[in-house]
Amino acid sequence: MAAEQVEINSLTLNETINDEDVVTPWDVSSKNDSGIDYDKLIKKFGSSKIDEELLARFEKITGKKPHHFLRRGIFFSHRDMHTVLTLYEQGKPFYLYTGRGPSSDSIHLGHLIPFLFCKWLQDVFQVPLVIQLTDDEKAIWKNLKIEDAIKLAYNNAKDIIAIGFKPENTFIFSNLEHIGTNPSFYQNMIRIQKCVTFNQVKGIFGFGDSDPVAKIAFPPTQAAPAISSTFPFIFKNAKVQCLIPCAIDQDPYFRMTRDIAPRIGYPKPALMHSIFFPALQGPKTKMSASSDNSAIFLTDTAKQIKNKVNKYAFSGGQATIEEHRQLGGNCDVDVSYQWLRFFLEDDEKLEQLRKGYTSGEILTGELKKELINVLQPLVATHQAIRSKLTDDIVKQYMVPRDLGFVINTK
After folding, report:
1. pLDDT digit string (tens) for 199-219?
2. Nearest alpha carbon to residue 231 among 185, 278, 283
3. CA 113, CA 248: separation in Å to the nearest integer?
4. How far apart are CA 75 and CA 67, in angstroms?
């Protein structure tokens, strides 16, 4: 079966990779100590592995060494990334789209991953970026008051801006505020809604007869930003390719979008999927904003970071020092090592830590200390930048405006 047909036929919520792994937009869990089997997930979703050939082409075309997220398989799967690289090679445009569902006052370390990667992609390709804050989704699923959901969106916007995005090429928007002022957004939502039957949306997302109609209507809202005419103030009337970096649990939304986009006259959005950022308790589930002890938040103090890592970070070490020296640790399940894969940029040092821990030379406490030494300055720097962001600065990013997008007419 062709990959294209696999993609369309895999539009079901039952994203059970095997009897032990479950991946949906709202639930990620595994019974395996090492977490989700991503190779099986690629096969189930009908996506393509980010392989050495793609990385080599990326480096050749851009002249940039692939980000460590790519080199280490943190972004591991894609749809149509070769198409995006061909467009760039030809001098043709594309844009980036990612998002955040604001469910807490502060984002946690796991939420940083797609934004750090988007920032790097934006710098490499010099393209516009749209960031959707799905405060409407959280108002529906978390039963939040509309006003409270919007407030969370603005708080999260400050965390996102603090990563280093520039206002001249970044548009951040709250669904609950922006859609009502942008007719093109609502019009594209309707175009998408007309292409999806009730049975399809139930099959894709698992909605039941007792779910509020708001849940059933939401997916086209997340799909619409992948259609360039949703933002006429940025893209004018151009039909522009979209690239979406996201965690792979968001893929069902965009498999739906890829099925619909050509039917309404637009290119299928391309995607790059990341693995999940594991909870402190281990790789069996992803970090959650609703569980304080599973996460390190960007508001945590240096002391809180140290205490959380030392107390809760799941260890791949042995029961005693003697056993550990003899048998070594398991980096595949050790949370400190797994987090260092995300945040320690030095490849050589990471490999030294891997070898040392696997051989038993490095103990769990020493590995945790290495992680704490990476996380404390990272979070402190973020807090310092965020503290200087005023409401007026945030509004600069959230006002609909021209981002200087120009179509190459050659």
Report:
1. 999 888 889 889 999 999 999
2. 185
3. 12
4. 10
